[in-house]
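Query structure, 195 tokens:
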């Protein structure tokens, strides 16, 4: 039961923050919208994906293969670069007031965050029993290579990148429309891609 309540309360808090920001710095007498909190809203669209990964190491000992297999958890962060977000002034298109949002492509923010406390040796094949354990540098190299592969896979994961884009569009659309409602306007939001 508790596991269902915590995500619900977190989502409720995020929505509350989003809706409370829509009126910040608004002058009640002015009809000019204030989109100054758009970057903060875009940062709310950033999300973290917890993933389980495997690192393998193979080395030669004399003429035999020595294999090791590590498992660990990492966190991949997806979102849009809030600093590149631009919200234009409302303009009339037909009978509607339209706000054009220039939004960068979704991306993976940096290297996956390795959860070091989760690293564990799952299997090791020593061809000769009295051989020393895998060195720390060999273990670190195997994990670094696995992290490189995980980063490449995350950047190529079009499903997760589309979800990041969709999440950002939903939050920014809601923000712009709520700013409009606060001054008595009904805005339609259109998005343009920027690099």
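Result returned for the query:
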């Amino acid at each position: 039961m508790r596991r269902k309540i915590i995500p619900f309360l977190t989502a409720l808090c995020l929505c509350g923050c989003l809706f409370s920001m829509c009126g910040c710095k608004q002058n009640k007498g002015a009809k000019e919208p204030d989109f100054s909190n758009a970057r903060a809203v875009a940062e709310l669209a950033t999300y973290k994906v917890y993933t389980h990964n495997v690192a393998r190491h193979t080395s030669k000992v004399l003429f035999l293969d020595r294999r090791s297999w590590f498992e660990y958890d990492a966190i991949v962060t997806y979102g849009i670069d809030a600093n590149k977000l631009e919200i234009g002034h409302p303009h009339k298109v037909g009978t509607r007031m339209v706000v054009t949002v220039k939004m960068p492509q979704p991306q993976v923010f940096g290297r996956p965050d390795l959860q070091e406390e989760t690293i564990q040796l799952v299997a090791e094949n020593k061809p000769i029993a009295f051989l020393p354990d895998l060195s720390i540098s060999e273990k670190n190299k195997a994990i670094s290579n696995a992290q490189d592969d995980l980063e490449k896979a995350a950047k190529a994961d079009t499903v997760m990148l589309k979800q990041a884009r969709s999440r950002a569009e939903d939050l920014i659309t809601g923000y712009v429309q709520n700013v409009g409602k606060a001054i008595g306007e009904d805005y339609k939001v259109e998005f343009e891609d920027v690099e």
